[in-house]
Amino acid sequence: MESGMQKLVVVSNRLPAALKKEQGRWTVNPGSGGLVTAMAPVLKNRGGTWIGWSGASDPDVDVDSLLADFSKEAGYELCTVPLTKEEVDGYYFGFSNEIIWPLFHDLQTRCRFYPKYWRAYLDVNFKFAEVVARKSDQDDYIWIQDYHLMHQAFFLKSMGVKRNIGFFLHIPFPTPDIFMKLPWRWKLIQALIEYDLVGFQTIQDRRNFVGCLQRLMPEARVEGRGAVVTVHAGNRQFRLGAFPISIDYNQFSDLAKRPDVARKAFELKEALRHRKIILGVDRLDYTKGIPERIRSIQTLLRRYPDLKGRMNFVQIAVPSREEVGEYKDLRTEIEQLVGRVNGEFSFPGWVPVHYHYRNLPYDELVAYYAAADIGLVTPLRDGMNLVAKEYCACNNSEDGVLVLSEFAGAAAQLQKHAYLVNPYDMDGIAKGIHRAFHWSKEERSLHMSKLREQVRKNNIFWWVDSFLQAGIAKTLGDFPEVET
Ligand code: ADP
Ligand code: G6P
């Protein structure tokens, strides 16, 4: 940690390393998803403590010694919160994954509002808060991450523990009509207003939150303009902000330039015989619109038969939440669709869809980004979507096109220079890909250079500085505008 800086204590459900039992042995794997990608360089840069669950719920595992090497190499302290299998089932698989995740992504029909999930969520939040209280002191800045842990400020206060504490939501915040379906809506809002600062990905998410707050507390008043505002609600005064999360741009761009990675990218192109590469990269999640995307490739090949044999769609999916039934069903659905599209169009020497279901090492993932002519990022709804930003950062040749869902948080920042599509509109996506194929070299380079400039400027270090400035500053100065 740099001298003179306030110590940072980051708290999230996941740590950057996750323990997993593979063939009877516990292994340490990098955590997956945008939260870990974004926060890891922040902690590496500033130092501090990261508190979270290890991914294991077996009481006999020696978590600390398994994670010791990871922590030493990372350069910051890792502190684990042990959870039992019952706690993981109720709080993580239940409340987090079967209630908040689908609800906040506008997919309320997938929610199971079981009261036992709510109770488990409260118990585990209390348990986390006890660890936070023990592992931090009054001068530290406590930064809670994401929807699993919305009750941290509430419980710390109820224990009489005083901390400067901020919360950042990595996923969207829904509109009042959707949020009001939550049986515990009032308790959740009451918990969120206990933070000193609550941050969202976009201005629209912040607006949705204010809408919900004012439905439940009509007297709540917002003061100020710009990215960070002050809210007065009952006896509480706190800040609200929009802070679009980002990536370590240089890390991705430099990795793509490394000779071995550039060679790998070239080999990928050669293996696909220099056909145009359309790339999708996601955690395997129903919010990512992967089946719809594969269907749009089917539509593309039906509508534009001249593309047969001239393109490949490569979908890389990282396994996620595999214990949950809906994720298992999604995997089967995707595999069947890939088979169906390949069955319809393949001919000797050409298979249109290449599907990889695994976690790739970063240099390999970056080689795919660098090789791809089109980055196809079409979530049905997404807080931000870092894949879109990673694709741009790796496109050093400035020759690629980003086709982006209008419902990804990233669209607020990247809309002027990405090709925006509605992820539910298969014809529209097919048309977008076809158009992107016909952009001239000048058009591609103009748009990609602007996208890269935006991601380079508003990178992860800009994000952390703007959040902490809003969290720590006594008065609100001029905050850089964020795109709405
Ligand atoms: P989410 O947070 O919902 O998973 P994001 O797009 O914001 O969505 O972040 C996904 C992160 O996971 C990115 O940093 C991306 O590089 C990483 N990732 C996605 N697929 C893979 C894969 N197959 N192998 C390794 N990393 C992956
Ligand atoms: C998203 C969420 C994160 C979560 C990640 C991976 O990025 O915002 O909080 O960690 O998905 O999901 P998992 O359930 O494996 O932690």
Automatic annotation (TrEMBL):
CDD domains: GT20_TPS. Belongs to the glycosyltransferase 20 family. This is Trehalose-6-phosphate synthase.
